[in-house]
Fold these 3 entries.
Entry 1:
Amino acid sequence: MASAFWYLEDGRGFARRWSSMAYMLRFITDELKTIKGAEAFYDYLEPFVFREEKGDEYNGYGGFIRNDESVMFNFDLRSFAPQNRDFFWMAAQNALVKLIVANDKENEGFIFLLTQLLDMHKQIIRGENPMLLNHLTIIEPERGEKLGPGW
């Protein structure tokens, strides 16, 4: 059962178990730090990345606890500045390529998930119906939040 949700630019949802989302966000942020110009966005997203080596513990409902604070994996890409969304998609693509090249059976599930996430993004670019590939039964309305750097 999904416990973490990412809302994409057209309101469709990408939803998975917290652990899958945790690793995907880790793969993506690890690639973000290699993209020129994405440093501020990396610094913004990094605190949302589950890191066992920092003592993070699963909170039981789609996030984790770090230093007695609950951190959730849910976010709406529309709340990020347009340049940061571009960085996110570049990093997701780079993470996918890196996992494919590594050819590690342990990462096959993440390759599938990143491919599906990037397929959703391609559908958004083409203007396709968000319900064609959506992990939710609704289109999430935009809240108009502006989070992170670059606004």
Entry 2:
Amino acid sequence: MRKILWRLLLTALLAAMTLTVPQSALAAPPVTAYPACPGFSVTINSSGGNQDVRMTRLKDGIIYTIVAGRGTTISVTNADTGETVTFNTKGSVTRTATNTTTGDIEFALSGANLVLLFDKVDVGGPSTVLYTGLVRFTTDSNYTLHEPIQQQTGTQRDICAELR
């Protein structure tokens, strides 16, 4: 009987502690600000859409992956001013080829894709650009861009310029 009462008391104390947790501890996690525009950072929110891994295969030490989907709405916000740009991507395909020896990753993005290049890390950064068309680039295993974007066809929209 004593063990049952002790367990009930512990359960009651845990329930009471849960109910008295400060509201700030229950709040949503902080949004990450990315150093992807000259002079300010941006936050990214997305909703809707359906991105699925369509295929992954290993051949000659290269891992090939295709991710495709449609209908994602993306909002990019200036972390300093709160100014926001929102757009629909309508659809995209991301093809990657990861070299298992070097870790380098070749990207081929088609459709509408938001590309963030970080300050003091990526060549050509900082920048936040919406590419519609085809974009090709290579990163290292940490997703750091060491060379300029290799190919770009279609249109590009400078999100940083719209958020200034």
Entry 3:
Amino acid sequence: MNQYGLGPTEYQLHLLKTMRPLPEALDRALRQIGCSQEQMEQEAERIRSVINMPAGRAGRTREILKDIRTHQEQDGFVERYQFPLWPEYEFEVEYHSTWDFFMRLAFVRAPGSTSPTGQPTPGTWLKNEALAQYEDVKEIMLWLPYETYDVLNPKDGKRYFLRFGWHVLQEIDEM
């Protein structure tokens, strides 16, 4: 634990909350880690208060997650972290060189984890993997950590709405 009394477990709850998964996926994840929705809300708020504005707090994420770091780029400003809830992914964080700001935060496929095949389904596909399955991709909204798209499925000729949280597919609906 660190001076903030926060660690990877609390940060994992913050990520889960901000992903906004569908209710059944959220319930399944909370059961898996033995937490209630109320606990998730409380821990997410604690994390936000430590890492968000004012400027200069992004580097605190490094301190909170140091025990689960799996990778660090040569320049030191890009790091990856492995969370128990998402063993097939690593959370990649790119920091500004001053450590004051985040440049990018997103899940990426973990080494040794294979990309899924077939029809994209929530929770198992990353943004780049899912979007590659479609044509006529139109961005609807980009408001990190959320991204939404209108896409055409070339296999059935139908349009779909896709929503991602931290680059993980959270929702897919026929339009």
